[in-house]
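Changelog-adjacent note: as of this version, every example in the card shows the full chain rather than a window. The one below runs 455 residues end to end.
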Amino acid sequence: MRSQKSPRGFGQKLSLRTRLSLGIALSVTTVVLSCLVGAFIVVQNTLKNERDTELQRSAGGIQAAITYHSWAITSDGCKYTPRLACIQIVDTQGNTDGSVPVPPRVVEVAAGTEPGYFFDFDLEGSTARSYAMEVDTGQAVMVTLRNDRVDTQLSRLALLFLGIAALGVALSGILGFLVSRGAVRLIRKLTLATEQVAADRKFDVRILESGKDELARLARSFNSMLGELDRSEKAREQLILDASHELRTPLTSIRTNTQLLGDSRLNATQEKQIVQDLVEGVEEMTGLIADVVDVARGDEGSRPHKTVEFGELVQQQTAAAQRHWPTVEFRTDVTQASLTGSPERLARLISNLLDNAAKFSPSEGVINVTCQPTRKGLVFTVDDRGPGISEEHLARVFDRFYRTPTARSLPGSGLGLAMVKQIADAHGAEVTIKKRSGGGTHFRVFFPINRTEPA
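Full-length structure tokens:
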């Protein structure tokens, strides 16, 4: 059944850079417009409040003038004209000394049945605002101001704010472009690096990193990941080369012995010896392949960890080693202690160290095995009485397939100690080796306290 692609929205069709630019520009524009609209509303209300205050102040002045009979007569159609206001007196009959039309409610204000109030109306093609209040018994004053002055100021302010808004939109677009370009530059480098790794299967690509922000952290993490992949890939390639080299010897022996079996001149004793050599070669190759697979898997993290009675595990593996190496003596000093880990892998660590010690010990030699908990953790040691390892070889004994000159004549793959180091690292342990002063080699594995539990 063919899978159907989900329809892509408009936003998904745009590049990440475009979306970031639009998002930043839209955000900045929204903030700028909100501030301008808010400022316009505040200024508008302030101007209107000042106008209303002017109307009330003018009306109050007329009330005082009537009270003290001190008003002035004008000839412009409005009897009382302080400043720019048109002021007229209205009686209870609706009569007025001005030319501005008088609404019926103003008459009620003059009669004292209505409180003073503001109202708007059309005046000669424009708008005006009036305030009416009672000034004397049976009289009201109606103060009128045209809205032209306020409307003109608001219109100019609106044009100014529109210019600021246009400039803000332009600047927000430029800002969004610059910010998105800086943010997407590193993402583009990551994308190119990922594509290069996928195409070439090479992990030596690195991204130049600077800063302390999230993108810089992402770059550092990406470089660390590529570094780990690079080391893993090189280790894998080296393992393949080393394994193919080590497998060549038993394969050559098996092929040679197989060809010899076809020689009719061989007697029964010779054929038996060749068959025995074939079996030994196959066993050697089988053990080598098993060791290579075990080292290559490195799957400690995928195996379940649980509480392991390490002291008991040491005794079990020592007993097994004693049966396998009857010509040497294993002496143990074990205190029961437990730790968290993989029992199968820990058993392999112990057996590899015991087998390595037995292999290099002389006949009737003694191997000391200890397991002791301390305040800082658990210490497991193996001491043999063999020829020891010279200082020049100590640093490489844990390398894969590395064998000292004295070990090359003995059976083994050169992977045993490499597996010990791998298992120890997976358990957070530290494995060290040194040459004993009385001859032989001393191996020490230290498990820190957070991985151990006293029994």
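Structural remarks: Residues 72-77, 79-83 have pLDDT under 50 and may be disordered.
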